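Anyone else keep sequences and structure tokens together like this?

Example one:
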Amino acid sequence: MDLMHAVLFAALQGATELFPVSSLGHAVIVPALLHWGIDQSAPGFLPFLVMLHLGTATGLIAYFYVEWLVMARGLLGLGYAEENAAARGLLGKLVVATLPAVVIGGLFKKPIAHLFGSPLVACVFLIANAGLLLLGERLRSRHLRQGNISYLDALIIGLFQCLAFLPGISRSGAAIVGGLKRGVSHAGAAKFSFLMGTPVIVAAGVAEVPKLLHQHQLHALFGASVIAAITSGIVAYASTAFLMRYFKEHDDWALKPFALYCAIAGAGAFLLLLVGL
């Protein structure tokens, strides 16, 4: 992989990880469609992907650093009693929301792993993602919750997030749909999704580090990986800033444009790949 493709792939990862359009689906479809010739089964690709995820997580942490500092202070008991309780409550809900992905991922990741490398399958699920986003808008509760997200809300959002184990289903999109079903606003659901996604993304990257050390592959793409990770982090930060403002300003129909994009992109890419263009 040359530097240009590495940077483009990083920008794609940094944006699609946060936008409700599936980073995994795009990571499979776009290189195949543009004939980048990226071998995702090559030993050097895993360390590169780990660097991208850590870069994306860094961008998320930078944007929400105040929230993470407050949670850290609350966990250590450094704030006022009420602040500490609220911070610990939010941290606990993030843990609850993450548990389904840990359990379901452990059970089903290997059985469905063969789907990840198929661009045509990713196209089909990208179209399915469009249906999920539209369904979320249609089934959303019209009675917005005035209080904080509850533990039950967090669990349901976490369960919805697990749909993203299918390549082409967006993690953030599925989580936001889960929040909408529980009466949470687009902005509130998106914020919780992004906070919830940060430890998931970090864990996914860190979990591969022992394998990288064992395979001794990191040096092969080290320079390109560092530049790509920085790119991914910058794009992730910018994407988060845009989306948080966008969801606040378009709460009545925020997911519909993304659903339209996924339907058109998924169907168009499917046809192009099918005819071999």
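And example two:
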Amino acid sequence: MPEGVEIEIYRQAAEAALFRHISAVEAPDSWFLKGQTTGEAVAAAIVGQQFVAARRLGKLLILDSSDGDRLGLRFGMTGRLIVDEQAAIGYLEYSSARNDPKWDRFAVRFADGGDLRIRDPRRLGGVILEPDEAALGADVFSVTLGQLVDRVFVGEVAVKARLLDQARVAGIGNLIADEVLWRAGMDPARSAGSFEPKDQRRFLKHLRAVLADFLRDGGSHTGRLQPARIRGARCPKDGAPLLRRQVGGRTTFSCSQHQR
């Protein structure tokens, strides 16, 4: 968290920052600036310009400036986007419920007095100039069956590990992966290349439904499986014990009965 769904909500909120003259950049936390990016470099690139587009690729929010520069924003597990003092999303799983300005890691100020900022308690997000979009795979909202077959449903690696690989499909995080696999009846630890075409089609169907549900309901924490993500819980679908395992390096919940 945030996952592709949250970043899409952030992208929509960032549209309120478009076509406004940028007057200043605040970058008090050098750790938050990634690669060779510095606060001075960001200011030189965008002050005096406007953002003309807000795009999303997976979990990366990209703001295009009128001068052609691109500003990439990542939000880690706990980052919020705030535009003109309004948080784009009210609740993030695994983040603090506090709304403390001391967690502001980066901000862009506009000449009209408003601003766009990232508030991130755990500092796991980041800002980078000219992000490498080519390093990311197909976007989760537009991925096709053919791309899933070529990039996910291949090899002996666990299917969940494939799904979490942002170079294959960008935007799927732990909660989306578990929810889709649970709905589709697919074992997260099963080898990615072992699924038949009918399973692959079923997965894509449920992926699209989950994304639509999560966007409508306000985030990746709103899944049907989510309330049962605790030790000793039972499957909300069939009442069987849930398995709690590490798959793909992440804590994973799945049904011992209907996910195969």
